[in-house]
Design brief:
The protein has twelve helices and 13 strands. By secondary structure, it is an alpha/beta fold.
Length: 406
């Protein structure tokens, strides 16, 4: 029975191990020949053996594959290959059924030169810039005085010593959480990314510093890795990059929130100088004292000027002046009132004289009388009464009753 005709496995009819190995080998063989890019983590050359074993590692992840090749192939393509070098090799995957392992069989190996590495970095730089990882608008300013600083650096390195010593010299109370990781080689990127995640998840960390001393372009390659750049971009905590010397600019410098030229410069950027801050405080206090003294002097002069005015030097003058004014107004009001009362009395006398002249009483005083019938009607003509009617005569003084005779 051919492999294509092998029935599906069941609990009653399971496949033998050899069948499973054959199927796995067949599926792997379908991939064919491929070009693979990676970093050499280990080289094993056995004396007298024609086969060379390599461990090829992904620079951005904790993954590796075993590569086997002929010594002649290695000597032809990369005779000076060393651990940590970047290579491109032409290989096909092979599954060794006897050991149940997977490896790559290479028939061509090319060591990546410095020029090609720089070209790749330039291409990656343009890609990250186009995605906005270098955008200045998203960069955050570290706090003025961080409560705790996270430091990612090599163990017992000069960079660690420079950051810790200079930061504590500037601000003795600063606290650090140091995470030591490899800063070059195939394991550097995964461990640095893990350290970033640990420090970024720590709420007590206010700023993270990536520090490494100087080195060649190849030594600083981990800090231009795409995975590391994206990890720095994704951090919630501000990141300060202090990689190499001032002339060294790996890609992580463009992504970080702050780029320090050296680890010593990073120490100056993350904490203030205590002596300088005390000097500034003294200067501010002196300026404040001068401002307060000046303000008090100006206000004292204003008070002296106000107190020297006549109104405050002799306050009774204002009252005396107001007394004179009140008396004058009272006199004017009295004269005006007297004048108006005199004029009103004259008008009243004139009105009274006219009223008296027009009053019926004045007519009666001259000897006239008013004749009224018994019902009170005033008689104006003789025809209004008849003989024998009772009438009433109103005189100037008193009244008379009378009877009409004719």
């Amino acid at each position: 029975m051919t492999q294509a005709e092998t029935p599906r496995s069941t609990p009653e009819e399971p496949w033998p191990v050899r069948v499973v190995s054959q199927k796995v080998s067949a599926w792997i063989a379908k991939l064919g020949w491929v070009w693979v890019d990676g970093q050499v983590a280990q080289i094993s050359r056995r004396p007298g053996a024609s086969t060379v074993f390599l461990t090829l590692r992904d620079p951005s992840a904790d993954l590796s594959l075993t590569v086997t090749t002929n010594r002649d192939v290695l000597d032809a393509g990369a005779p000076e290959l060393a651990e940590g070098a970047r290579v491109v090799l032409h290989a096909r995957p092979e599954f060794y059924a006897a050991r149940g392992t997977l490896s790559l069989r290479a028939d061509e190996i090319r060591q990546v030169g410095l020029g090609e590495l720089l070209a790749r970095l330039e291409k990656l730089k343009k890609l990250l810039a186009a995605e906005g990882l270098f955008d200045r608008a998203r960069k955050r300013r570290p706090p003025f005085l961080p409560a705790r600083v996270g430091l990612i650096t090599g163990r017992a390195s000069a960079a660690e010593r420079d950051v810790l010593t200079n930061a504590r010299r500037r601000w003795p109370a600063v606290e650090f959480r140091v995470v030591n990781v490899p800063v070059q080689g195939p394991t550097a990127v995964p461990q640095i990314v893990d350290a970033l995640r640990v420090l970024d998840a720590d709420d007590s960390i206010d700023v993270i510093v990536l520090a490494r001393g100087g080195g060649s372009v190849e030594d600083l390659l981990p800090f231009s890795d795409e995975a590391l750049c994206r990890a720095v971009f994704g951090c919630r905590t501000p990141v300060v990059s202090a990689i190499g010397h001032e002339t060294d600019i790996p890609l992580v410098d463009y992504v970080a929130d702050v780029r320090a030229s050296t680890p010593t410069d990073a120490a100056k950027r993350i904490v203030p100088d205590l002596a300088e801050e005390l000097r500034l405080i003294r200067q501010a206090r002196q300026r404040l004292d001068r401002a307060v003294v000046g303000l008090l002097d100006r206000e004292r002069q204003r008070l002296d000027a106000v107190r020297s005015r006549p109104v405050l030097a002799r306050p009774e003058v204002m009252i005396e002046q107001r007394v004179v004014d009140v008396r004058g107004l009272r006199d004017r009001a009295g004269r005006c009132l007297d004048h108006r009362l005199t004029a009103a009395a004259g008008d009243l006398r004139q009105t009274l004289a006219r009223l008296r002249a027009l009053s019926p009483a004045a007519t009666l005083q001259r000897g006239y009388a008013i004749v009224q019938r018994a019902d009170g009607h005033v008689v104006r003509a003789a025809g209004e009464v008849a003989k024998g009617d009772q009438i009433r005569l109103r005189l100037a003084e008193g009244e008379l009753g009378a009877t009409v005779d004719g």
